[in-house]
Write a structure and sequence with these properties.
Two copies of one chain form a homodimer. Chain A is an alpha/beta fold and 230 residues long. The first copy, chain A, folds into two domains: 140 residues, Rossmann fold; 83 residues, Putative phosphatase, domain 2 (DNA polymerase, domain 1, Orthogonal Bundle), CATH 1.10.150.240. The first copy, chain A, has eleven helices and six strands. Chain A has a six-stranded parallel beta sheet with strand order 3-2-1-4-5-6, sandwiched between helices. In chain A, α7 links the parallel β2 and β3. The termini of chain A are close together. Chains A and B meet through α7 of A and α7 of B.
Chain lengths: 230, 230
């Protein structure tokens, strides 16, 4: 095994927590009373369906920033949030560029990097992932994104495209993710898999099912993953 | 300006010096008497013409590793180098993954990285650039390659594709290179340019002309570039 690829939203960074945190500031500065936990959950809930619309050709290919913005515009109406300028909306949309990592992430990646090539493998666009890494100090060796393949996970083109671009057999690449459907899809392409549950991703209710014994590794967090891969 | 992109072969790494160094080992272990300086220069000289054949459709799109291998097979015949196994040839072809940086590169990039997003912008394929960075400790924020755009520099698609992928205006991106033709092509796309001559690239004869006053910056090396961009 040469390369570890990582799902990002939920696995590496805490989207819900960061949106709540930035939302609290927005409530204060703009005099809003938004429930940002609910807002974050709904924003994220729109993500699967809107990618499906791209997959089925109902929407043209676009990067995740643009899909996030379509969803955001709907949510602003739904939550009756008025008084945001275009700059405010753009800034809020880019909260996905500023998501904060779980606390084990940087120490875990730093250890893993000594032995493996580390890459993102995310539906987030390249500029989003670069901004996030720069800000949070995530020590990736490279940024791989659905944007490079014009396919979103869980389409096989993403997993196989990553292996090919890295000049690896699929079995030389591992996907690390908190979401069994992502791991299952990677597994079907011949990749190895590490399941790292993130029980706080949705605020305490793990949404997407648990380990069923079919993953190569189940780890508590990235530091544990590094220990298991020694 | 947000992003510095870097030409790699010649600008960041010393391809001629590394090939000579590895060639000396090969002469010893395989009992060869090859002039590796000449070999390196000829290998590199084949690079422009073979990319042109891809550009004109005489060869299908392929990554630089594969173009290097086509050139290598011809050179092995021309230099009458026999007795290499397929593994030996593959290893020799991958010397481009092991090229060593000029000595100012790591300190210069380390300083520049505090302020800018740093990316490769090379005709080398992604896996080549990742291997090189890992080995030499080059602190890129991301790896951008001709491979992502299915165009080689100096085609405009590479420079404009990089800016677009980074969500930048061309004028927010600078190309750093030792080769005026690369810089001129970037300039024509609206990028900023920094010329860093590498007088030893060809062993003391600078091949590709000098500064003509049209580049935004002319720097002695990457440490000087960092000082000028403060």
């Amino acid at each position: 095994m040469k390369v570890l690829t990582f799902d990002v939203f939920g696995t590496v960074v805490d989207w819900r927590g960061t949106i709540i945190e930035e939302g609290a500031v927005l409530n204060r500065t703009k005099g809003l009373q938004v429930d940002w936990n609910k807002f974050a959950l709904q924003w994220r809930a729109g993500y699967g369906p809107i990618m499906d619309r791209v997959r089925k050709g109902a929407l043209p290919w676009m990067k995740l920033d643009d899909l996030h913005r379509l969803l955001l515009d709907d949510l602003l109406r739904e939550f009756r949030i008025a008084g945001l300028t275009e700059d405010d909306k753009r800034h809020l949309n880019f909260v996905w560029h500023r998501l904060k990592p779980w606390e084990d992430v940087v120490p875990g990646l730093t250890r893993l990097r000594r032995k493996y090539i580390l890459s993102t493998l995310s539906n987030g666009n390249v500029s989003l992932l670069v901004d996030m890494a720069k800000r949070a100090g995530l020590p990736w060796d490279l940024i791989l994104s659905a944007e490079l393949f014009h396919h979103f996970k869980t389409d096989p083109e993403v997993y196989l495209g990553a292996a090919k671009m890295l000049d690896c057999e699929p079995s030389e690449v591992m996907l690390v993710a908190a979401h069994p459907p992502d791991l299952k899809a990677a597994q079907a392409c011949g990749l190895r898999t590490a399941f790292v549950p993130r029980p706080m991703e949705y605020g305490g209710e793990q949404k997407a099912g648990g380990a069923d014994g079919s993953f190569d590794i189940v780890a508590r967090d990235f530091v544990d993953l590094a220990a298991q891969l020694k």
